[in-house]
Amino acid sequence: MTTDVCILGAGPGGSSAAIALAKQGVRATLIDKAVFPRDKVCGDALSGKVMRSLERLDPALAMVLRKDARQLPSWGVTFTAPNRRSLRVPFTRETGQGQAPGAIMPRLDFDALLFERAKAAPGITTLQGTTAKKSTRNADGWSIELTRTDGSRSVLQCRLLIAADGANSPFARHVAGLSMEPQHHCAGVRAYYTGVTGLDPEGFIELIFLKELLPGYLWIFPLPDGRANVGLGMRSDVVKRRRMDLKAEMARLLNEHPDLKERFANARIEGGIQGMGLPLGSKRRALSGAGYLLVGDAGHLIDPFTGEGISHAMISGVHAAEVAADALRRNDLSASALRAYDQRVWKRLGKELSTSTTLQRLAQRPWLFDLVVNKATRNPMLADTISCMFNDLDLRERLRKPSFYFKLLFG
Length: 411
What we know:
Elements: E1 2-8, H1 12-23, E2 28-31, E3 45-46, H2 48-57, H3 59-66, E4 72-74, E5 76-80, E6 86-90, E7 102-104, H4 107-120, E8 124-127, E9 130-138, E10 141-148, E11 153-163, H5 170-174, E12 185-194, E13 205-208, E14 217-222, E15 227-235, H6 236-242, H7 246-256, E16 268-279, E17 288-289, E18 292-294, H8 310-330, H9 335-362, H10 366-378, H11 380-388, H12 393-396, H13 402-410
Parallel strand pairs: 1-2, 1-11, 2-8, 5-13, 11-18
Antiparallel strand pairs: 3-7, 4-7, 5-6, 9-10, 10-11, 12-15, 12-16, 13-14, 14-15, 17-18
Helix pairs in contact: 1-4, 1-8, 2-3, 2-8, 8-9, 10-11
């Protein structure tokens, strides 16, 4: 088999790349080891950035998603500081009016919607239940050995390869040389519950910064029909240093913590607690090389503070498609030509990831977190400023400056 572009991984990054390549008139083969619909261990929150990315990529699909009964509109986030005080921060000043900025939808459903749209795109061939066992560079591009679930084997020849195969990408690790560094990696666990009390009626997601979890946090994300996605995440080097069992710690907190045990007293878990790894964008890495581009989690692009990766996967997937289409037209797939992809991704996400890295470090200081929440609960103007920071990167930059906290203390 031959194709112009091979995309490894059909999650949000790979499917977005396929849809964008189809718009450019480029033939591509989209490969995934799973068969859709398939689950993906995640928080399931589709931020405003995800929704905006989807609207730019495929406006019709965005409308379909907003009408889907499996998603819950989300209007904001509630932060709970280590001192147990909470700050409710809306994503917009018009909460409840028009379309919600964000949504919460199980990845089982969201990824399947996006994959089906990619599958129907012109010029896109999809191979499900197919694993790329080995990728070899040759004069014509890449030769990729494929194995299907039924045991059959084949070889795919492509000119350019886009690796969007997630946090454990073999290509990113063995070919591109991106290693897992514990200080730039997060370990997480997640489970679904029914019967959790106190879920926000307007779909506000909850980020609970408990002192014993810093610089990580516990989350509670409401879903339709009274369900909730519940989990916690912590930087991997901290987990190792503290010798923590995150599954046991999550169960303990839900059973014993004063703010959680009553809410989960009658809750029922669906299945079990599952684990995941999140390669963080707190270190800038090379995202391309001769004949290849790394997208989303495979490029270690997850937000270091919030843990969000879906929007970054979609954004980088579209940039990869556009750079790939241009490189194919010019017949230049060299490392220097494809470096345009790195430049575009870091121009779009670099400032945001840098700010989030600083916030992750600041979150290790409980007194500082408590200070911000305490002041904001008493100062509507400050609370409104924090709300605006979700959509204004220049405003969010203020959180990195000592003068912001000096003014909180003495202003």
